[in-house]
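I am still getting used to backbone structure tokens and would like to learn alongside you. Label the sequence line and the structure token line clearly, so we can match residues to local backbone shapes. Go ahead whenever you are ready, and we will take it from there:
>
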Amino acid sequence: MAKPRISITYCTQCNWLLRSGWMAQELLHTFADDLGEVALIPGTGGIFEIRLNEELIWERKRDGGFPGPKELKQKVRDAIDPERDLGHVDRASRNDGLDN
């Protein structure tokens, strides 16, 4: 079975290459053995889209901005391996709003 492909389409006019590269790096670091490819695709017109295979998992205009690394990793994990523990990323979200 082929490993999943992530594509990040970013706006070159908006200078979002560094943001896209950073998100690609975060995904490759966390899912190094689980992803087949992370591609950066230049675009224009304010586009910022992240796809897992062909499924749109993040769209800047639709989703109200850019994802944080935590949110993006959780979305990818939920799609490719829902049982996977993301360590501190998951533990932090489980404790959100709790009195410590």
Remarks:
- DSSP finds four helices and four strands in the chain.
- Strands lie at 5-11, 37-43, 48-52, 55-59.
